[in-house]
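Side project, low priority. Logging it here so it doesn't get lost.
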Amino acid sequence: MMTYSDYIKEIEERKGQGLHPKPIDGAELLSEIIEQIKDLNNEYRAESLNFFIYNVVPGTTPAANVKANFLKEIVLGQSVVAEITPAFALELLSHMKGGTSIKVLLDLALGNDIAIAKDAAEVLKTQVFLYEADTDRLAEAFKSGNEIAAAILESYAKAEFFTKLPEIAEEIKVITFIAGEGDISTDLLSPGNQAHSRSDRELHGKCLISPDAQAEIKALAEANPDKSVMLIAEKGTMGVGSSRMSGVNNVALWSGKQASPYVPFINIAPIVAGTNGISPIFLTTVDVTGGIGLDLKNWVKKTDANGEVVRNESGDPILEEVYSVATGTVLTINTKTKKLYSGDKELIDISKAFTPQKIEFIKAGGSYAIVFGKKLQTFASKTLGIDIVPVYAPSKEVSVEGQGLTAVEKIFNANAVGTTPGKVLHAGSDVRVTVNIVGSQDTTGLMTSQELESMAATVISPIVDGAYQSGCHTASVWDNKSKANIPRLMKFMNDFGLITARDPKGVYHSMTDVIHKVLNDITVNEWAIIIGGDSHTRMSKGVAFGADSGTVALALATGEASMPIPESVKVTFKGDMKGYMDFRDVVHATQAQMLKTFGGENVFQGRIIEVHLGTLNADQAFTFTDWTAEMKAKASICISEDYTLIESLEMAKGRIQIMIDKGMDNQNQVLKGLIAIADKRIAAIISGEKPALRPDANAKYYAEVVVDLDQIAEPMIADPDVNNADVSKRYTHDTIRPLSFYGGVKKVDLGFIGSCMVHKGDMKILAHMLKNIDEQEGKVEFKAPLVVAPPTYNIVDELKAEGDWEILQKYSGFEFDDNVPKAAARTSYENMLYLERPGCNLCMGNQEKATKGDTVMATSTRLFQGRVVEDTEGKKGESLLSSTPVVVLSTILGRTPTIEEYKTAVEGINLTKFAPSHKLLVK
């Protein structure tokens, strides 16, 4: 509970950080401020008025509830504040977005004072964030003959809350700012190690790129008040690696515009661009804020006189600059011609950024308003008994006669709502779909809770089968920041209706399992659509989309998501996997062979990877689907054989039952319901009523990739290539090298096994390798530290039951203790094995990190600059990604092994195997 004196003290502390007062979200503080406003002689009255008008968080926060009710008193004349007239009070209510403000407006509009009712109704006609309790009141009043209610409903039926908004400008002047060269990870825009501050938007904005960059953006904006600063990924893709709503928020804070004059630090309409466009999951986040994302294509592959691509000594295409976007370049976006201009010169077509749907997002200030507006118009029309008036751009429905369906097309058709009945939709269609499973993770969860409050949502949509709030990203260190943020988050989400990793009541043991692993377990139908607040939300059952915190909030509140049906790339396999190889090598080889086949073009980018793994269960197949985030795919679908799918569903049931046994189910018995869904699905497969999901034999793909297992002769490593002369080639995940490239001499400073890319089998590989080395050498001696973070507690429990954990304990120098969790992150490591708490650990980069300048060999997914390891002045940190056996051997040797050393070390070890299915996995 914060008092006014505490708030003033906090304000002084923030001044020292160059920050403004923190927006108020607490009821107690705002109540005290209101009392000071009522006291005309109070020495703090003037500043209290300022705080009340301009510094309160809207939506369903406790402070918003207090503010709305006080404004109601002013409108009714029950309280008199000279500076806030009844008309101004109504204007303030119009900026509060929902929750109590809507209830107050309905109270006024449906009240007995006709003059007030009419004024309140005019405000209500501009609002879209209404829920069932609100619309039910309107419907009842209408049925009772209330003329004001009828007028409001008529306005809603015409969607005047949208049609009366100003049209978007025909010309938008921009001035460019090169944010970086090559792919720009969202870590540059919102670093993982600053995750704790994301809910404090102004403070978090200080971490965008660098102080120098912030100063340059500010100077550009001040010198060009008629232009928007456009952040650019030169020679790369903007926003790879994560959806990161906080990244878009930071960009908007520095280069966007304020959403409301009465709500601080919530900005909208950022403009971002990349030579190779915007990462799909990041582009969705841009849409949430009504922003613009451009594919510039300002560098193209150089060709010779015969039209052949010219390549350099490394075999990479040489790029030529088509037009310059150097920092300070003035360009014009024309939203009518949908072209980008430099003066009068047309540069490029940008129509993909201005589809009818995206134009609506821009006009409405974000995609949420469109989603809620459509629902509100539908409700009003139904209540009035009239047909829906066409207002919004019709959903794009692409249907090709005689063409079969890919797996993702089948899933979208099965889950679509609001489409033409009986019409079969193909890729390119814009679709609203129901969402089955939703996941919120802990470093973005506070933002998701803020989004839920801002859209006035109080309870999870009943059409969501299950939702989970994780604790994995803050699992490594239980520091003061975590202690302040995480319990508050868990209580909010638990109250909202999610299954939570931590029990706000403290009954069950806290679970820090990696969110993607939990979502993979609670997805119990391969026809499901999953939305999760992390780019690695990519399940081996169903189709899953990593999303920003806002899209997660929308899915939780409405049970829906909207997006185009993506094109698919089909991946199949041939040949035989060599006995000494691990499946992780197949995953890396898929990317390498794809790039080679298509001349360096990443055909996976922005598309669905439909991978025909067939014989791999959900745990093992997850290694592939998880990596598809680094392939820049929008999502992935795993095509399984019937009985492999049954095995995976039975495994999921067992894991869910463990969660139930721990006491994690809620009053709605969500987890019990998921087991029932799994049982029903298994029965349908066994009976033949509905076999495992298959694409049609005549489905159309953007491309087909056949991975030749015979070509994979040695372990494959994803290398950040930190010293590549072409900066744009660094940190891309596209440099896949064989082990022999390193000649057995590259020094390795630290190894990491853990996070979402490993499963139980990887832990067993580690245990057996250590046991073998002990038997061969008489001891296990580490020449580099080895950090091990199992992804889930279930795996730890199973390893304990099977004796493998005991082997790991024998060789470890540290083992996590939940009773005494670490209170501070490590700053240095000894040459020993660390058994860390289940969770993300080094992969997240927000708590634990390797020593600066280290070369890390990891099973992780992240090789971005500064993520796992930061640079020193004299040496760049490197995060090389490989299989578990390569990581183990590298830490034993303190260097990369030779292929001969590797083969000897894995002899007799049960590596993760894969053999292509002999069945035709099509319908």
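Brief comment: The radius of gyration is 28 Å.
Revisit when time allows.
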